[in-house]
Design brief:
five-stranded mixed sheet; 14 helices
């Protein structure tokens, strides 16, 4: 129990360290929230929304940032919980209405954070061991998390402001984690710090803690044992002063070392989880991509696959000799076989597949510009298009493409990938590819494209 209490009295458990880690954690959550909102509205745009198509790697960057920041939240959140752990069990549990708001916001924030980053990580592996829909829940929890974070920051703002102005402590950090009663007693050692604050519990728990607090200072005993006998009073007094000064210096050095060690551990942990997963998005890190579920260059035609033709149950229809792509607008319909599409002017573009799970892969696509097909049915320049897949069911069987993508010269009905006929797993006989769009909206196994005038 003595060693356990010493662990709870860690010099990193102070407002300054909590603020330092809190800044980083808050930044990571804000990045996740902003990029998550962008991805959400790309998939479910509000009326009148339009999106940038340049740079063409935009979604690869935003969603890669979303996943990388989300993964970094794991060690940062654990570090934050380590710092504030004793305060979670304060006695009494609630001291005032403001304290109630503070603890409620912390409980909500911690709970929402743990659920949010856990289901987000499992989503990258496309594993959903829960009964609720991931996308809707993830979106709702994002608002809960950012709201509770804002409330928590608002309540803690005076402390945060003092720490930012470097008024919270003198740099030693010895007093930050002490209770008020102990802080007033300058002779108290960190071993006297109790988990339950200044009010001692009663009953068996109180007796146990009283015994812990009465445990002798092992360092003082060791110092006494080493002290030579026969010294006069003045020499003994000087020796005690020297010993106290030495112990203070050692404690300060230990505190600083502990802080540096803690921050180094957190930094190495964040760097490790990021470096070992970011390779699915950042090409230079591909060689050390150890944890991410997708790896660049692995898959049919050198491009990873998320949803297979077997999962979509489209093989028979996609490989049928009678397949045609229907393009429609205002009652006018034109159907094109694959050979007819190949006979039209072809365009080659380099665009990435960038998926919501965070992975991306740059590839070379060749096919017919969607704007050319739109002109063949006299679609208005401001018209959006509804894209329909051969899939019989699924959330993305039908997707909507805004006019900014339809008229972009890089948007293709792709027929070839990396110089080869489009593989069935990548959407044969034809698929959509456009700049700055999530992979789930780059519809595979196209069957119908219909213009919708505004």
């Amino acid at each position: 129990m003595y060693e356990a209490q010493r662990a709870l009295a860690s010099p990193v458990r102070n407002p300054r360290m909590a603020t330092v880690i809190g800044r980083l954690l808050g930044l990571a959550f804000v990045l996740c929230f902003g990029t998550g909102l962008y991805s959400h509205f790309l998939q479910e745009p509000l009326p009148g929304m339009h999106f940038a198509t340049r740079p063409e790697l935009l979604y690869q960057f935003t969603q890669g940032t979303h996943i990388i920041a989300g993964i970094a939240c794991f060690p940062l959140l654990l570090a934050k919980l380590f710092i504030v752990f004793p305060d979670l069990f304060q006695q009494p549990p609630v001291k005032s209405f403001l304290n109630f708001l503070e603890r409620a916001s912390i409980a909500l924030f911690v709970g929402a954070s743990l659920v949010q980053i856990t289901i987000g990580l499992l989503n990258t592996y496309q594993w959903y061991p829960w009964p609720f829909p991931f996308r809707e829940t993830h979106f709702a929890l994002g608002w809960v998390l950012i709201g509770s974070l804002a409330l928590h920051i608002g309540i803690k703002l005076p402390i945060i402001a003092r720490v930012w102005r470097k008024e919270a402590d003198d740099g030693s950090g010895d007093d930050d984690h002490l209770t008020d009663a102990v802080a007033r007693d300058r002779t108290a050692t960190p071993e006297a710090v109790r988990l339950f604050g200044s009010s001692r519990p009663t009953g068996v728990t109180g007796r146990l803690l009283a015994w812990i607090d009465a445990t002798p200072d092992l360092r003082a005993d060791a110092t006494a044992e080493r002290a030579p006998s026969g010294l006069d009073t003045g020499s003994a007094s000087a020796s005690r002063d020297d010993t106290a000064d030495a112990e203070d210096a050692a404690r300060t050095a230990h505190t600083r070392l502990s802080r540096r060690g803690f921050l180094t551990t957190v930094g190495v942990s964040v760097g490790t989880v990021v470096v070992l997963t970011a390779g699915q998005t950042v090409a230079p890190l591909d060689a050390v991509n150890a944890f991410a579920p997708r790896k660049k260059g692995v898959g049919q035609q050198g491009v990873p696959v998320n949803r297979t033709s077997k999962q979509a149950d489209v093989a028979a229809d996609a490989l049928a000799a009678g397949w045609v792509l229907t393009v429609a607008h205002a009652g006018v319909e034109r159907s094109f076989s694959r050979s007819e599409l190949l006979a039209m002017p072809q365009t080659e573009v380099d665009l990435p597949i960038a998926c919501v799970e965070g992975w991306s892969q740059l590839a070379r696509w060749r096919g017919v510009r969607l704007s050319d097909l739109a002109d063949l049915v006299s679609a208005d320049a401001a018209a959006s298009f509804r894209l329909t897949s051969l899939e019989k069911k699924g959330a993305y069987r039908q997707t909507t493409m805004g006019s900014e993508y339809v008229r972009d010269q890089l948007t293709l009905v792709a027929l070839e990938l990396n110089g080869e006929t489009l593989d069935l797993e990548h959407g044969y006989p034809a698929r959509m590819i456009a700049p700055g769009r999530p992979g789930v909206l780059q519809t595979k196994w196209l069957s119908r494209i219909e213009a919708m005038d505004v």
